[in-house]
Design brief:
Layout lengths: L6 E12 L11 H11 L7 E6 H7 L3 E3 L7 H10 L3 H9 L1 E8 L2 E6 L4 E3 L13 E3 L5 H12 L8 E11 L2 E12 L5 E2 L15 E2 L1 H13 L7 E10 L20
Parallel strand pairs: 2-8
Antiparallel strand pairs: 1-12, 2-12, 3-7, 4-5, 5-6, 8-9, 10-11
Length: about 260
């Protein structure tokens, strides 16, 4: 990470869902298709953050698979019996993972090829047309976010402009899933308050905030889970520090008590 301290700040926010985005097909230009809905839906200004659900990115990038075309391997068949899932689904999950972390009835936690720790490698049946189709996570979410930022930067008068690609993750110690950032471009993903003093003079030692995750959750509240609205804009932030992508949000395995 750069020596420049990453900080994301806000005192008042304005946020809205972006309507009018059609169903995407593989190979379509998501950035171009969303330009007019972004403009009509309120436009963009410098320091705006656009939250994009990963599913629309995955569809445009061809990360949709049909389970009808999947032949489960012997390891997938054994694991499917253990967790109680469709063996074809488990096969796709294994293809999208580096390793299995937890496997119990109804639960399959993996480390994905992108380095994320989540249920089912992010492979999902919802909002993908029904039937035998599933979506997989974008292969390089930070690169996808950077591409969208280039497509929309002129709409924000040249920026600054933040882009967050989000997905819904469960949490080991809390009920209820929340949206988190799996791809970030144009802004820091973390706010590092360590080494600063509070108003009483106390030196902060461990106050690092997952700002991109918090903004991603704002986006989910606006976009909903079943409303087919894949974009939201959040206005009112400013930031400083490096554009290091979403990888800095992932805790290293040696400091992750869940994986230990």
């Amino acid at each position: 990470m750069s020596a420049e301290r990453p900080l994301v700040r806000a005192r008042r926010l304005l946020a809205w869902a972006v309507e009018g985005i059609p169903e995407l097909q593989a190979g379509q230009d998501l950035g171009a298709i969303c330009r007019e809905p972004l403009r009509v839906g309120g436009g963009l200004q410098p320091w705006d953050v656009v939250v994009v659900t990963h599913k629309v990115v995955s569809k445009a990038e061809g990360r949709v698979m049909s389970l009808a075309e999947v032949e489960p391997s012997d390891p997938a068949l054994a694991l499917a019996q253990r967790v109680g899932q469709d063996p074809r689904m488990v096969q796709v999950i294994l293809q999208e993972s580096r390793r299995v972390i937890r496997a119990e009835p109804g639960v399959l936690i993996t480390e994905t090829v992108q380095g994320l720790v989540c249920a089912n490698s992010g492979v999902d049946r919802s909002n993908v047309g029904g039937g035998e189709l599933v979506t997989c996570l974008p292969l390089q979410p930070d690169r996808s976010a950077a591409g969208l930022r280039r497509s929309w930067l002129d709409l924000a008068q040249g920026g600054p402009l933040g882009i967050i690609i989000s997905d819904t993750f469960g949490r080991p110690f809390r009920e209820g899933a929340v949206n988190v950032a799996i791809g970030v471009a144009g802004m820091p993903a973390l706010s590092d308050h360590r080494g600063l003093h509070d108003e009483q003079g106390y030196l902060l030692h461990a106050s690092t905030i997952g700002s991109a995750d918090e903004i991603a959750s704002i986006g989910e509240l606006l976009m909903g889970k079943i409303d087919q609205v894949p974009l939201a804009v959040v206005r009112g932030f400013s930031w400083e520090g490096p554009d290091d992508g979403a990888g800095v949000l992932q805790r290293p395995a040696e400091r992750d008590i869940f994986r230990r």
